[in-house]
Design goal:
Layout (H helix, E strand, L loop, with lengths): L21 H43 L1
Length: about 60
């Protein structure tokens, strides 16, 4: 989760029947929050890159006129 939005899912499996304890769940939740924030930052950086490229293209078009 990042800013209240789901950005991914962690699937924790075990070869044998296994009940994940409280510490396991807390650890996976913390990892999920950290990973979610990084995924969202990467998505935002990509969006910024696209918008920057678009602005440069528009500036070039304006200068050509």
């Amino acid at each position: 989760m990042c800013r209240g939005q789901l950005v991914g899912v962690i699937n924790a499996q075990h070869r044998h029947t296994y009940a994940h304890g409280r510490r396991d769940i807390q650890l996976l939740s913390t990892i999920g929050l950290l990973a979610g924030a990084e995924i969202e930052l990467a998505r935002m950086e990509e969006e910024i890159w696209k918008l920057t490229k678009e602005v440069r293209t528009l500036k070039t078009s304006e200068n050509a006129k």
